[in-house]
Amino acid sequence: MMPRRFGRTCPLFVLVLNIAFTGKECVVAQPTGQDAERGPVQVIFDTDITGDVDDVLALAMLHTLADRGECDLLAVTISKRHPQAAAFVDAINTFYGRPDIPIGISTTAPPRESRYLSLVDRRRPDGTDQYPHDLRDDSDARDAVELLRQTLADADDHSVCLIQVGLAVNTADLLDSKPDRISPMTGHDLVQQKLRLASIMAGAFGPVGSNARHLEANVKNHIESMQQLVTRWPQSVPRIWSDFRIGIAAKYPRRSIKNDFRYDSDHPVRQAYLRYNGPDHDRPTWDLTSVLYAVRPGDGYFGLSDRGVVEVQDDGFTTFRPSADGPDRYLTMSKPQAHRVIEVQRSLVSQPPNLNAPSRVAD
């Protein structure tokens, strides 16, 4: 189980890191006419929602962005095994008015304990669910690879953004999947034809404090699958990486947990945060930054590195090799950008659900 304060292995003094790059590495992401014309971003959210609570905050963000008509949440797949994980995701989706979003679980992922998933078992005095949900345990959920294949097969070409904020087991298994009753295409070909972008939280492409060889958790906890992702990925589909240094420099403020959820003292996101951190901790927003970039790539919250190729070594260390035709870029963030990111993420996470929002996948 991860340590309480810095589950992804970071010294306390590392608050804002050396990620305000200069020169070619600090190209600010700019809006394009194509981005403006796409309409809501079509999102698959692949999460290891069991350990750290930033996955919960990121899922809340996606629902708020969907309420605003900025994205459609097509499916959620889970990349760690816990008997309450699917039920918890279903409860969050139901809380935000989207109870029919399909949820898939991995059959190959490692198990993980959780401090907050048991919230899903809370009952009201009358015995009903505190947080209503239809999925009672993981056996009620779909197979993650089957769900990924179905979602991509049903999508328009080059229309889907995969946001991966945990282990790469589901993505690696998807890439390895063969033609079946869902689609005559291989998983590799479905990714190549249906995805327009992958926004990935993983890696560390520079020193973390004095540690020049930081092994980031989403990589080191399942190295083989991340290696498969980087080596078997279709080169025509861009991958944007939010590495460890970004989230640690944009922490979710504890004052938001104290003040911004007063409209519902039992808000499941607030309760999950308190169970994981307690009230006196500003949690890094690793996973949230991948969501923010994926849905609002042209709003200037981040810069982008030049193009290159991400490589994963056998111990889980990630490197970035510049290459003009590589599929990879990673986020950069200046101190002024970090302030903007913190405030916008706070606003999006804590916004009350709009149960009358037009963006409902099940409609």
Automatic annotation (TrEMBL):
The keyword DNA-binding does not apply. GO terms for molecular function: hydrolase activity, hydrolyzing N-glycosyl compounds. Residues 43-235 form the Inosine/uridine-preferring nucleoside hydrolase domain. InterPro entries: Inosine/uridine_hydrolase_dom, Ribo_hydro-like. Keywords: Hydrolase. CDD domains: nuc_hydro_2 (cd02652). It comes from the Bacteria. This is Inosine-uridine preferring nucleoside hydrolase. It comes from Crateriforma conspicua.
